Amino acid sequence: MSSGGSSGASGSSGGGEGGTVSGAEEFDFAAPATDQSFENALAKARDGARLTVDDATELLATGTGAAGIDPVRKEAVLEAADRRRREEVGDEVTFVANLNNNVTTACNTGCLFCNFKDSAHAFEADSDVEHAGFTKPPAESRAVVEDALDMGIYEVCSVSGLHPAFALNEEHHEILAAHDDPASEVNYKPPERYATDPGTYVEQLDAMSVGGVHLHSMTPEEAYHASRGTDWEYESVYRELAAAGLDSAPGTAAEILVDEVRDVICPGKIRTDDWVAAMEGAAAAGLDVTSTMMYGHVETVAHRAQHLKVIRDLQDRTGAITEFVPLSFIHQNTPLYRRGVVDSGPSHAEDELVVAVARLFLDNVDHVQASWVKSGDAHGLKLLNCGADDFMGTILSEEITSRAGGEYGEYRSFDDYVEMITAIGRTPVERSTDYRTRRRIDPDDGPHGPRLGPRADGTPLLANRSSDGGRGGGAVGTPPADADD
Ligand SMILES: C[S@@+](CC[C@H](N)C(=O)[O-])C[C@H]1O[C@@H](n2cnc3c(N)ncnc32)[C@H](O)[C@@H]1O
Ligand SMILES: Nc1c(NC[C@H](O)[C@H](O)[C@H](O)CO)[nH]c(=O)[nH]c1=O
Ligand SMILES: N[C@@H](Cc1ccc(O)cc1)C(=O)O
Ligand code: SF4
């Protein structure tokens, strides 16, 4: 049998603070053996043949016949993926000048891997529950984006908690409020109940879509929230969001796209079919999307392989996916860890194999991202030699990974990027969100700054802004959290 299970799964549940995790007891975390051999799977990968789920399972496990990752086999998989990357996209490593502007941390969905959210109850006007979260009204969101545009960014990435007062628009507010018991039936409470009104989704997007910035927002889970309690199609919801300024949608909320895993780690979230339907709706509305997988918690390598198949099938149908973003689970402050369901996140070897197998399996997705937020600089650079060709963005502000216990800061400058990418012998390239506009950067022509932004002239992003140069120096683009929320 298998090497199968994620290194992070302790196999136990409950016990620790905060109670048990339903479903974790019965769940069979071991990966089943496949009918394929590791050697055959590797040969197919080297030949460029389309891989099956069994092939991917064998490659991710470096063979399901023995426990643990075999270091020699792992190197063979990484080498095949690195070669494929060079053939497909060459030696360029891309990155984007962007800002994360997350609007609210209020959320009742209760995902067990997430420490970004704060119980929405704490945000109510008459609540005396202390919390460190925030809600930014639309005007504040706009001010934050305006400020970052002046610095030279050209993408805003905005993902938020599912605030119960959020609705798509005024009509949606009326539909939600008309329920007999809106709080329990459709997770809705009117804005008046809260210390800060988040506005509608349309108002938030309209506020952030300013000055020619590319607005990357509205995950499938958020699109579900923006249509809850109605029979609206995802396509029409995304069309309305696009009319308000949305340019592309992040494919987070994917986690592991296998329902038996979702039942354990995010029972309150939409299921796999709904996630796919939302992404198809975004694509039908003419939007680009990204795709993600959050791995290294309770899932097996077989689940990872099944997830990759869902993404590849979606891309066969839509062609709308610009990149695959592996999200290495950060465990320290999460309910999954505190309750003893997992004892760690994925190992470095697992990170490397996920990137490599994504490159080999997703033959229809051009770009695979390495993340300095999740992995840090050194390991992030290593992942660029395992099949990845994109190194994320400047982001200026980070809340999801840092609240989960990540320690790699919330900003990288263009000079950091140029230095790191040239150090591994690759070519640094500034890209637009959709990768269609690219600018190769001459490493000798520093100091470096963005040039693709509507207000970018090559000046380093934080010039004249931060005495410490900004690296890891606290939220830059975002004001302190609304303590009064
Ligand atoms: C925090 S949510 C925000 C957007 C929205 N609430 C949703 O769920 O789509 C965005 C994504 O962050 C990722 N994430 C959350 N907690 C994480 C953790 N501890 N480690 C790694 N990724 C995490 C998950 O993939 C999640 O879908
Ligand atoms: N990987 C993470 C990202 N990636 C966002 C990218 O910077 C960019 O928005 C995307 O590549 C669109 O093309 N953002 C995070 O906040 N955290 C990550 O871990
Ligand atoms: N990187 C994702 C978005 C994302 C945002 C925040 C995260 O913590 C993780 C991922 C995308 O571009 O689609
Ligand atoms: S992952 Fe998203 S939906 Fe789940 S608890 Fe966190 S913020 Fe809420």
Automatic annotation (TrEMBL):
<dbReference type="InterPro" id="IPR007197">
    <property type="entry name" value="rSAM"/>
</dbReference>
<feature type="region of interest" description="Disordered">
    <location>
        <begin position="1"/>
        <end position="29"/>
    </location>
</feature>
<feature type="compositionally biased region" description="Gly residues">
    <location>
        <begin position="1"/>
        <end position="21"/>
    </location>
</feature>
<keyword id="KW-0479">Metal-binding</keyword>
<keyword id="KW-0004">4Fe-4S</keyword>
<keyword id="KW-0411">Iron-sulfur</keyword>
<dbReference type="GO" id="GO:0046872">
    <property type="term" value="F:metal ion binding"/>
</dbReference>
<dbReference type="InterPro" id="IPR034405">
    <property type="entry name" value="F420"/>
</dbReference>
<dbReference type="InterPro" id="IPR045567">
    <property type="entry name" value="CofH/MnqC-like_C"/>
</dbReference>
<dbReference type="Pfam" id="PF04055">
    <property type="entry name" value="Radical_SAM"/>
</dbReference>
<protein>
    <submittedName>
        <fullName>7,8-didemethyl-8-hydroxy-5-deazariboflavin synthase subunit CofH</fullName>
    </submittedName>
</protein>
<dbReference type="GO" id="GO:0044689">
    <property type="term" value="F:7,8-didemethyl-8-hydroxy-5-deazariboflavin synthase activity"/>
</dbReference>
<keyword id="KW-0408">Iron</keyword>
<dbReference type="InterPro" id="IPR058240">
    <property type="entry name" value="rSAM_sf"/>
</dbReference>
<keyword id="KW-0949">S-adenosyl-L-methionine</keyword>
<dbReference type="InterPro" id="IPR013785">
    <property type="entry name" value="Aldolase_TIM"/>
</dbReference>
<feature type="domain" description="Radical SAM core">
    <location>
        <begin position="93"/>
        <end position="366"/>
    </location>
</feature>
<feature type="region of interest" description="Disordered">
    <location>
        <begin position="429"/>
        <end position="485"/>
    </location>
</feature>
<dbReference type="Pfam" id="PF19288">
    <property type="entry name" value="CofH_C"/>
</dbReference>
<dbReference type="GO" id="GO:0051539">
    <property type="term" value="F:4 iron, 4 sulfur cluster binding"/>
</dbReference>
<feature type="compositionally biased region" description="Basic and acidic residues">
    <location>
        <begin position="429"/>
        <end position="448"/>
    </location>
</feature>
